[in-house]
Amino acid sequence: MSSFDFTPVLAQGLPPPAVKWSGFPRYNFVGGNNDADQVPVDRLVAASNAVLMREGATLATYGLNSGPLGYRPLREFLVGKLKRDAGIVCTIDEILITSGSLQGLDLVNGLLLSPGDTVLIEQECYQGSITRLTRRGVNVIGIPLDDDGMRTDAVAAALKELKSKNIRPKYIYTIPTVQNPTGTIMSEQRRRELLKLSEDYGVPIFEDDCYADLIWSGKRPPAIYAMDQNGGVIHIGSFSKSVAPALRVGYIVAKWDVLSRILSIKTDAGSGALEQMVLAEFCAAHFADHVPKLTKGLRVKLDAMMESLEEQFGTSAEFDDPKGGIFLWVKLPDNVDTMKLYQAALAAGIAINPGTEWSVNAAHSKSRLRLCFASPSVTDIREGIAALADVCRREFGVPTRSANIEKTARA
Fold first, then answer.
1. What digits encode the pLDDT tens for the residues 92-108?
2. How far apart are CA 103 and CA 99, in angstroms?
3. Which of 77, 72, 142, 135 is nearest to 109 (CA)?
4. Which residue, 16, 123, 172, 342, shows the most beta carbons closer than 10 Å to its own?
5. CATH code of the region 23-39+290-410
6. What SS3 state is found at 237?
7. Per residue in 323-343, pLDDT tens?
């Protein structure tokens, strides 16, 4: 049977069509998936039963009788959590619940950006942020990172050059607390420097704190939003990494003059109500003791991945021990093109994220890759890294068989 051809009427500038999902590969090191064994299923079930028995009738009303900003008990929980963990002092009317942090990104971009605008972001950065900017026709300037996160000297140089051209960037985007993909944490001093630059040049800061709960030490610097005295920061966060990605619950924190404008373009009649209700019930009772258990388990998996890379790749794989999160950012020898490695590895049942997808500097990221260690088991991590080494050796001649021996001798 013939079918209607939609091709002539498709909108301009669409991304390529999606590929049908055929299941996860044997060794899956991609995506922001978390540890399935640590999803608090029993407690979520109990929370669901309790809150539905108590307040289920409010599902008959858009907004659960809490208004368009989101379920009030969840925003009340966030007021306390943000103050305790990030130093953010805000009210429930300065928090908007979103359908994951991705909707937060879209809403802030929808508020601030037009085609041709300029933004500053970290050179290595969340793919979702990069692709959204590209699709909007925005000029993206990548700022290099070091062990303390986004380099403020490079931010200062970029802002100065842009000002000389009469260009005022719409925002500075940063993931300062457990950066994706590098796992760095921006120092408190550098946060102050970034705020000073924001004030001097009149450019707001867009702070993405989606991974901030997953810090091995349990201690973090105050959020940039918490240190701001002028209302020039928009902050987003998420429960995806701390509880469960599939719940799709995030939030925006901003002063009401900004949040009211964001709310006016959030025309979805409210984010998922049941998810908000269950999260509020669960988090009030269990969030504080759930996260340390989660991070402890994630650290075990990270150690297994780093040990496996050292055993299988030796000196051919370079990486820093991330300070938290679920990703490891790895540098392979310069002759390795990780986009080609990705294709060969996928054919062998191994999924990796090639570095060019997580960077605005293709040359710098060509031989880098991002590996998610949260989802696979320790056994799969060890087997998968060994299999990846075999593919890399076959395709690029590295790692050599003696690489791990050389590294052991050097250590």
1. 999 999 999 999 999 99
2. 6
3. 135
4. 172
5. 3.90.1150.10
6. strand
7. 999 999 999 999 999 999 999
